[in-house]
What does this fold into?
Amino acid sequence: MKAVWYEKTGSASDVLRVGEISDPHPKAGEVLVNVKASGVNPSDVKIRAGARGDLQHPIVIPHSDGGGIIVDVGEGVSSDRIGEHVWIWNGAFGRAFGTCAELIALPAMQAVKMDQSTSFKAAACLGIPASTAYYGILANGSVEGQTIMVSGGAGAVGYYGIQLAKWSGANVISTVSGDEKASIAKNAGADLVLNYKKDDVIEAVSDFTEGVGVDRILEVEFGSNLSINEGVIKNNGVIATYASAGVMEPVLPFYNLMFKGVKIDTYLIYTVPEANRKDIISGISSALNDKVLSHMVTESYALENIVDAHESMEGGSVIGNIVVFF
It folds into this structure.
C-alpha cells in the first residue's frame, strides 16, 4: 500500500517519507479500512517533531483521524460490516500505524459507521476536533436552556462546539480574535460573538446573561483566558478545557473559584473514559444523522504533498481543518 511514515522525529521535510509498504491485515476483533481521507491535527505534527519525546515504535504512520470504507474484517467481526463508510478515532494513539496510508487495521469499535451523505473529508475531522467539542459541551449531561461560552469559536474544535451546543438547546457566546473569525462563529450559530482583543468580554457576558454568568465554558487557552473565565462563570459552573499552550503552568485564583464552586474539567480526548467515548460516538452519530453539523475543511492535500500539509498546520494560520486525501 502507499503510505506516509517516519522513523525518527524532526522537521516534516527531513523525516516524512512517502512510498510503498506492506499491507496490514485485520486481527481478531479488527476491521481493515481503505482510507480515503486522513485528518491532520496539532498533536500529529507535535509528535512527529519530537515534542512528545522519543518514538515508541521503530516506524510510525501518522494521524489519528480518518474516513474510509471497511474492506475486510478479522475473526469475531461480522462480515456485514464490509462496505460500511466509517470515521476513525485514535488511529495512531498508542499504535504504530495511523490513518495516513491507504489501509489501516484497527479495533472494530474505532471505525464508526456513518451515513454515506457524510463525506470522507468530513469524517477525517470527527475523531479529534468534533469529539473534543462534544465532550467539552456535553460530558456532564444536557445543556438545554443553559448558556455556554465557546473560546475560539472559529477554531477546529470551537466551530463544532458552537454547533453542538446550539443543537443541544443552549444559548451560545463565543470569543474570537478578529472579524473573519467572528463571521465563522456567527455562521456556526453563536448568539453573541465577542472579539476578546477589543471587547470587554466580562461586561458583555454580564449584559447578555443579565448578570447571571455562563453555565459552562469550552476552553482552548485555559491559562491565557483564566481571568476572563473567572469573571464570567456562574456559581457551580464548569470550565471544560483541553489546552493551555499560551500559559502552560497557570496560577489558579483558587479561593475565588472555590467560593463560586467552579469545576475545572481538564481532559485529553485520546484518553477519556470508555463511558464518555460511547456517549461521544453516539452523540456525533446522532448529530450527523440530524444533519446539523457543517465541517470546515479549509485545506486539502494529496498524499504526495504531506510535508506541505504538516508545515501548514505548524504555521498556525489556517482557520479550520487540514485533510490529506487519497
Observations:
- The chain has two domains: 2-125+295-325, 132-270.
- Residues 132-270 form a domain with the Quinone Oxidoreductase; Chain A, domain 1 fold (CATH 3.90.180.10).
- The first strand starts at residue 2 and ends at 5.
